[in-house]
Amino acid sequence: MRIAYFTHYFPPERNAPAARVHELSRALCDAGHAVTVVTGQPSHPHGVIYPGYRAASVRREVIDGIDVLRCPTLPVANRGLTRALGFVAMPPAQALVALARAPKVDVVIATSPQPLTGLAGLAFARARRVPFFFEVRDLWPQDIVDIGVMSARHPFIRALFGVERLLYREARGIISVTDSFVERFVAHGVSRERIVVIKNGIDARLFARPHVPAPLRERLEIPDSALVVLYCGTLGLPQDVGLLARAAARMRGDEAHFVIVGDGADRAAIAREVAALEVGDRVHLLPAVARAEVPGLLTAADVAAVLLRDIPAYAGVLPSKMFEAMAAGTPLALGVRGEAAQLLSAADAGVSFPPGDPDALVAALRELARRGPAERAKIGARGRAYVLEHHDRRQQARALAEFLAARR
Fold first, then answer.
1. Tens digits of residue pLDDT in 75-95
2. Which stretches of 249-292 are DSSP H helices?
3. What is the C-alpha separation between 273 and 271, in angstroms, rounded?
4. 3-class DSSP assignment, residue 35
5. Using one digit for the tens of pLDDT, what is the confidence trace for 309-331?
6. Contact 56/87 with Cβ under 8 angstroms?
7. What are the residues whose beta carbons fall under 8 Å from the beta carbon of 160, sequence distance 6 or more?
8. Quick one: which of 353, 318, 348, 317 has its CA closest to 334?
């Protein structure tokens, strides 16, 4: 099968949407399918075009067997209302470049966030007269409203709700990343047979061999007695990573050190909170790393923290970083309600706590510390076994290909 995959993000960008598209596309190619990814020039999260790329260019490259077609891009930082300019500018460029340069395809997938990418995929699919499939990773624009970035009455948000309804109606199939989203699609008139759930997962090859732990304790001078708590991922408004600083303020220095690795719109606010709480000696804010370095960081940690703000829309989210931590054999402290907490319980891979509650996070960390290294290793092993059995990208790619073929 020949597949066009429209996405706003793609490596060398390092966020979860880029990783999902990359890993699923590579697994599809390995299974004998041909995938053309239609995306922009990499600039996330700072709005600075990566070295070797040019904003105004059309570029074609091959990454891990994937045909990558890059369109001209308006680089804007991933913060504030200016990011909307990038969201609006890219889809027309994607559609035009794909129509001019993409090879013959059998199906088109467009993935959110953001939903305007779906319009580019839909336009291309209609022009080529092939089926269009919409992959929903986040419930935009509802998430934007729930976070409080914009009102539901804002003209831009109202327009996005209209786009959402259009994409649900016109898609031959809907690809959901969680079970929890399915009822929303049904409420919008999507029949259940048009929906498949392909959850987040891991590239088993990235975690296939033992990894040398990153020298976090030595580099950061963390006492042997202290629990190393790692957050590795996007530092955005949804993640509430400042909660780690608030937890640190409630713990002694020999109890836990918090290592935050990543970048994003909320990084400066996190740094300010760390300074205001005077916990900079125990909260270590490090830059983002290449994806290949993530397993070593996770292996070095005693606990991986996975956090989201306590808003209703996030009760249906399965953060990709929880699967990576499980694959590395690292116990989780999970501050996410709903489906994520249910999955953690099924895997018996850590401790969950109410999101946004620093006292509950402290209690969860103390519980994991009390269990000791041997018991934490058993917890991590259970998580690894679970995620390799149920969330391997290769298995997910097969399920996705079967759904696409059945709905063509």
1. 887 665 566 677 788 999 999
2. 267-276
3. 5
4. strand
5. 998 878 888 999 999 999 999 99
6. no
7. 115, 116, 140, 141, 144
8. 353
